[in-house]
Design goal:
The complex is a heterotrimer.
Chain A lengths: L2 E3 L2 E4 L11 E5 L6 H9 L10 E2 L2 E2 L10 E4 L11 H11 L4 H14 L15 H13 L5 E5 L7 H18 L2 E6 L2 H7 L2 E6 L2 E6 L1 H6 L4 H6 L4 E11 L2 E6 L4 E6 L8 E6 L5 E3 L10 E11 L6 E6 L5 E5 L14 E6 L4 E5 L2
Parallel strand pairs in A: 3-8, 3-9, 6-7, 7-8, 13-20
Antiparallel strand pairs in A: 1-2, 4-5, 9-10, 11-12, 11-14, 12-13, 14-20, 15-19, 16-17, 16-19, 17-18
Helix pairs in contact in A: 2-3, 2-4, 3-4
Chain B lengths: L2 H31 L1 E5 L2 E4 L2 H8 L1 H35 L2 H16 L2 H12 L4 H8 L13 H25 L3 H9 L4 H29 L3 H6 L7 H11 L3 H26 L3 H4 L4
Antiparallel strand pairs in B: 1-2
Helix pairs in contact in B: 1-12, 2-12, 3-7, 3-9, 4-7, 5-7, 7-9, 8-9, 9-12, 11-12
Chain C lengths: L8 H27 L18 H4 L12 H34 L5 H9 L6 H23 L10 H25 L3 H9 L4 H30 L2 H6 L6 H11 L4 H28 L1
Helix pairs in contact in C: 3-6, 3-8, 3-10, 5-6, 6-8, 7-8, 8-11
Classes of the chains: A alpha+beta, B mainly alpha, C mainly alpha.
Chain lengths: 354, 285, 285
């Protein structure tokens, strides 16, 4: 599928199959084309070329109001002039369903999203989380083939967002509807989805389960965008099967694995996750690590379970982000103290630039 | 549904309205003002109606007088109305403020005729003011306050006040108090803050208020004739007289067109002078 | 200047006195009109002769009350008829224009928008004469060509309605556009997404959202039509609306029945104003 606006390519030859009944997320920075993709599936935009098939049938000539695809809008788009029940029953009334049946299905849907008996409330009277559920009920009551969700959690505060992530996953499981969820928040995508597509500049960089994206990123963009990493630039100095040795600008040497084919002399970027780096006071536990360094603590960034250390390698002067192990062993570390640290070559991903 | 069709359906009322009731009538008015009666039912094109205007001192004196009085009425309305708008926007608070604002709007909800009638009861020889002065012993006999320029002014300012105060309150309201506080904090006195912060900010409101007030005063008919009497020499009376009394529509059209040009010039000049546009001032008022 | 900045008590008191005087000025004519509606005298002037309801319910001359004054009641009915027609026309066209200017893009859109605003800055009397000149011109040509006299194009209620509509439509367009501008288009998309056709989406979602603005615009249109004088004066035929009828009476000299009818107008306007305020309050929810 492809979509261009004048000479700007918003969605560039995206090819994608989503198994029925799964939770699929499209993750990407703003402006990457994910909203355009979603609006094409909903029918608000026509693809410039390509096709959209739902249950094996092309829906290109089906107008948005006839598609079995429903959408939870970014700001929910609940009708402010109607109450909760009228909102949920809107689509059913459009199908000409008799009034009593509408009332029954609406109450049923509200019960399933955990809001039994709130049909007569006004939209302005219910909380943010309840609005989310009404917006979802309004779509699911129509029994769509696909439910599209356009960053619906964006407006919620942090705590409610965490709660709604779990809730959404549960709802999807219960209704067994295909969910397509777009977001720029990786934690939303990683937590909820069966599969995630990382999108950048109109293209899919990588599609796969959350673990795969995190542990085996295929491109520099995915490695940088998903999760945090320490990053070096350097040049390949030696290759042995898929293990490479890289010389960095600061003339350090890092051993890692290449994410793709490469040859000696290639410019590469090297990524190491903070939690892959092990700490040691005397270096004794780092014996079988391919990369070992000595250094000193620059600062302790305490944040409970997500605490970090910033350490400076003595030889190269590199500053490296290290996850602080919560085993209790390093709780007394302070800035200025010496530590040793290291990581295995399997945890070090090298990507050829270009 | 066909989108093109929907567009034309929406465009049609606008075109019919503006075309049939605004554009064509004004072109027709202009053409009529250029036609000169040769003999009954036979017309020629010529500027006679306009030369009649410039040849007869009564006409152009009335015209100039109307313009001057309208400008004075506008200025007076601004001077009287600004402190009130400022008081409502910045000093009054809560319910009191809302009440004051609604009170300002009140006269607008009452017909201009009723308002003018009220002033007649107040100002005429046997009226309330004259009686009150006699009762207080300040004067021995009844005084006629009606039928002079001051009475016209009182009426014009009264009628126009709302159209000045509302846009002023709106723009002053949008001025954050912290700007005024900052103005003081940096050493300005009340006058400097007013001149350098408040008035520049209120400019769009001042312009739109002045444009509407001027236009309304210029085109007013009721107030001058009822408060100023038959000889109040207001230009709209000349137009009315040509059309209804003398049945000289060609001359009346020329007068109408001259009034239209004057009003458009002042509106255009006011906008240009202050760098505003019609859409911004009137469109949001 | 603002409550957070200290000011000398003397200046503050002067300012407050000024504001108080202003509101007395604002209220005075309306108050005297109301009071003299109940004065037991043949003229609405001091002195106070005692309380009476004759000017509302008196049945015989010279104290014929407003509810028995056929010509005034008739004029009120004419005004009502005109105002209702103008309201319906202007709200319908205003809604269509709002959709056109807020939803569509077309060449000359800015030009069309400015043109749409111009009726507000053309003096009412000129709108009146230009429509008068054009319609009479058409009527004369038709009469000359095929010998049919088109009554509707001669001064009368049809022209009064058209003349008032020609500038009131601008106001309804502005009011309804302002509301439509705040409308979140994704609501309409949500309706489409839930199976509504484009027209059904507009009918079930957009129009209900616009309803308060349409009602508000309707009330403003109704009042402006009911009170209009300048444009009406030039287009009126044998059936005079209330403002024209009152004007004719005022010129002849007035009895307190005019005060009585003015008071009724004020009460009616105040009621409409209350409805407006209630509508605005609801909108804020």
């Amino acid at each position: 599928m492809r979509k261009t606006f004048a000479d700007f390519v918003a969605v560039d030859d995206v090819d994608l199959a989503i198994p029925s009944g799964s939770f699929f997320s499209i993750l990407g920075p703003s402006g990457c084309g994910k909203t355009t993709l979603l609006r094409m599936i909903a029918g608000f935009l026509q693809p410039t070329s390509g096709d959209i098939l739902i249950k094996g049938r092309s829906v290109l000539d089906v107008p948005p109001n006839k598609r079995a695809v429903n959408m939870v809008f970014q700001h929910l788009a609940l009708f402010p002039m109607m109450n909760v029940a009228e909102n949920v029953g809107y689509g059913l009334r459009r199908r000409g369903m008799p009034r009593e049946d509408v009332a029954k299905k609406v109450e049923d849907a509200l019960a399933r999203v955990g809001l039994p008996g709130s049909g007569t409330k006004r939209i302005s009277q219910i909380s943010g989380g309840q609005k989310q559920r009404v917006a979802i009920a309004r779509c699911l009551v129509l029994d769509p083939d696909v439910l599209l969700l356009d960053e619906p959690l964006g407006a919620l505060d942090l705590k409610l967002r965490e709660h709604m992530k779990v809730e959404l996953k549960k709802l999807q499981h219960e209704f067994e509807t295909t969910f397509i969820y777009i977001t720029h928040d990786q934690s939303e995508a990683l937590v909820m989805s069966d599969r995630v597509a990382v999108m950048n500049a109109g293209r899919f960089e990588q599609v796969g389960p959350a673990q795969e994206l995190y542990y085996q990123p295929k491109t520099i963009f995915v490695a940088e965008f998903v999760g945090d990493s320490n990053k070096w630039r350097g040049r390949v100095a030696a290759i042995e099967q898929n293990r490479v040795t890289v010389t960095t600008a600061q003339s350090g040497r890092i051993c890692g694995v290449a994410a793709g084919p490469c040859s000696i002399g290639d410019d590469v970027e090297v990524f190491v996750r903070p939690e892959a780096v092990a700490l040691s006071r005397d270096g004794s536990t780092l014996q079988n690590m391919a990369n070992q360094m000595d250094g000193e603590v620059v600062s302790v960034l305490f944040n409970g379970a997500a605490s970090r250390l910033l350490v400076r390698a003595r030889e190269t002067g590199d500053e490296i982000d290290v996850a602080l192990p919560q085993t209790g062993e390093f709780n007394d570390l302070q800035a200025g103290q010496s530590v040793s640290f290291g990581w295995s070559d399997a945890q070090t991903k090298c990507f050829v630039i270009g | 549904m066909n989108r093109r069709f929907g567009f034309y359906l929406l465009l049609a009322p606008l075109v019919v309205w503006l075309g049939a009731l605004i554009i064509i009538p004004h072109i027709d008015l202009f053409l009529t003002s250029l036609s000169v009666k040769v003999r009954p039912r036979v017309y020629e094109i010529g500027l006679d109606n306009y030369s009649a205007f410039f040849g007869e001192p009564l006409y152009w004196n009335t015209f100039a007088r109307t313009a001057l009085m309208s400008v004075s009425a506008t200025a007076l309305t601004l001077i009287i109305g600004f402190p009130i708008a400022y008081y409502i926007a910045k000093l009054a608070q809560g319910r009191f403020r809302a009440t004051l604002f609604v009170l300002c709007l009140l006269p607008f909800w009452v017909s201009e005729l009723v308002r003018t009638f009220g002033w007649m009861i107040l100002l005429r020889e046997t009226g309330v003011v004259s009686s009150a002065l006699q009762w207080l012993g300040l004067t021995s006999g009844p005084i006629e306050f009606l039928y002079n320029d001051a009475a016209i002014m009182v009426g014009l300012v009264y009628t126009s006040m709302l159209f000045m105060v509302v846009p002023l309150v709106t723009t002053l309201d949008s001025l954050d108090n912290s700007y005024i506080e900052a103005g003081y904090d940096l050493g300005g006195n009340s006058f400097a803050v007013l001149r350098e912060i408040v008035i520049p900010h209120a400019k769009p409101g001042i312009v739109s208020g002045c444009i509407i007030v001027f236009m309304l005063s210029l085109g007013n008919y009721l107030t001058p004739i009822l408060l100023g009497g038959k000889d109040s020499l207001w230009f709209t009376q000349q137009i009315y007289a040509q059309f209804i009394t003398r049945f000289n529509w060609e001359q009346g059209s020329a007068f109408g067109f001259l009034l239209l040009i004057l009003s458009s010039l002042i509106v255009w000049g006011g906008l240009k002078l202050t760098g505003q546009t019609l859409s911004k001032t009137v469109g949001q008022g | 200047m603002i409550p957070s900045i200290p000011q000398s008590p003397f200046l503050r008191d002067v300012y407050r006195t000024y504001v108080a005087l202003f509101f007395i000025y604002l209220a005075a004519p309306l108050v005297v009109v109301s009071i003299f509606a109940f004065n037991d005298a043949l003229f609405p002037s001091p002195p106070w002769e005692g309380f009476t309801l004759d000017w509302f319910f008196g049945q015989t001359e010279p104290r014929q009350g407003l509810f028995y004054d056929r010509s005034l009641l008739n004029a009120a009915m004419v005004s009502l008829l005109v105002a209702i027609s103008v309201t319906i026309l202007s709200v319908a066209v205003g809604t269509s224009n709002a959709f056109l200017f807020e939803r569509e893009n077309f060449r000359f859109k800015n030009f069309a928008y400015v043109l749409m605003l111009t009726p507000l800055v053309v003096p009412g009397i000129i709108l009146g004469i230009s429509i008068l000149v054009m319609s009479s011109g058409i009527a004369n040509s038709v009469d000359d060509a095929i010998g049919i006299e088109i009554e509707a194009l001669r001064p009368g209620l049809v022209l009064v309605v058209l003349g008032q509509f020609s500038f009131i439509a601008t106001i309804t367009t502005l009011v309804i556009s302002a509301r439509l501008r705040k409308f979140d288009v994704s609501l309409e998309e949500a309706a489409l997404n839930l199976g509504a056709t484009r027209w059904v989406a507009v009918r079930t979602v957009t129009l209900p959202y616009l309803t308060p603005a349409m009602l508000g615009a309707g009330i403003v249109a109704f009042l402006m039509s009911f009170e209009n004088f300048n444009t009406t004066l030039m287009l009126v035929g044998s059936d005079a609306p209330l403002t024209i009828a009152l004007f004719d009476r005022l010129k002849e000299g007035s009895t307190p029945v005019l005060n009585a009818i003015s008071l009724m107008l004020m009460v009616a306007s105040a009621l409409l104003a209350l409805i407006m305020i209630a509508l605005q309050r609801e909108r804020r929810d």
